[in-house]
Amino acid sequence: MSDSAHSLSNDQEEYQFVRVLGRGAFGEAALYRKAEDNSLVVWKEINLHRSSKNVEDSALHEIEILSLLNHDNIVTYYNHYIDDESLFIEMEYANGGTLHDKIRIQESGQLLDEEVVLWYFYQLVSAVAHIHDFDVIHRDIKTLNIFLTKSEIVKLGDFGISKVLDGENRLATSIVGTPYYMSPELVRGEPYDLKSDIWAVGCVLYELLTLSKTFNATNQLRLAAEIVRGEIKDINEKYSEEITELIHLLLHKDPNQRPSMMETLKNPLLSSRRE
Ligand code: ATP
Ligand code: MG
């Protein structure tokens, strides 16, 4: 994190630095303890260094939207500030790792119980339904961005902020990470829309049931071809037929055939969970 972030915390003694959580494409995320109430929070830095004023404005706009979102299954945004070089965002800390970690730990071949998968999935769909209700598109739904608390509460994080930057830094971001969750229409170069989030939600569900990526390949070109082909291997017989049907709906090649998140919540697999 840049000097300014540390000095802010030191000068005001409002936040005590705990440790760096990791580095993303545009900066670092670090854990801080808030002196006021001893709680842990995350400060994420997004480097605006080479971006235009326009990008800065859209990032700030994105934050305004995020601050409107208030849901148990969404990482809460607390605060932000901006200096010459970076945007800093203060947010809720999820202390139980990510769904990606969960899947990796499990990869000894021991499949998760359907009940466990549905518990995570229900929370994810609830979160995405909430943001879609505000006409916000996440744009980067993947197991790495789905956090957990120690009590197994899902916290969807990492909204479009870095994606706002993507437009201008396309070259930089196309090298970072493999687009496992990209929908066929995105592969074809069509603009992002809510239905691509739904595709990604389908990919996450499939990954929870198989412990492997829905579409995978040794390079990005092959991956794109796999996605457009859209064929997926059957899931293990221990899972219900209803869940297979749901996967095929979410991963429908025609975006218009994919159910909305609201409709998905009404699916009998999930509807019994609603309070
Ligand atoms: P990207 O720039 O594409 O978002 P990234 O997700 O790797 O890349 P960050 O979002 O900055 O980068 O996150 C860096 C690290 O901090 C990751 O390991 C992430 O799991 C962790 N992290 C980020 N936000 C939180 C949070 N709210 N609670 C717990 N861990 C977090
Ligand atoms: Mg991230």
Automatic annotation (TrEMBL):
GO MF annotation, one: protein serine/threonine kinase activity
Keywords for this protein: ATP-binding, Kinase, Nucleotide-binding, Serine/threonine-protein kinase, Transferase
Record carries keyword Nucleotide-binding: yes
Family according to the record: Belongs to the protein kinase superfamily. NEK Ser/Thr protein kinase family. NIMA subfamily.
Gene3D superfamilies linked to this entry: Phosphorylase Kinase, domain 1 (3.30.200.20), Transferase(Phosphotransferase) domain 1 (1.10.510.10)
Domain Protein kinase: 15-270
UniProt source species: Trichoplax adhaerens (Trichoplax reptans)
Annotated GO CC locations: nucleus
Pfam families hit by this protein: Pkinase
Listed name of the protein: Protein kinase domain-containing protein
Keyword Protein transport attributed: no
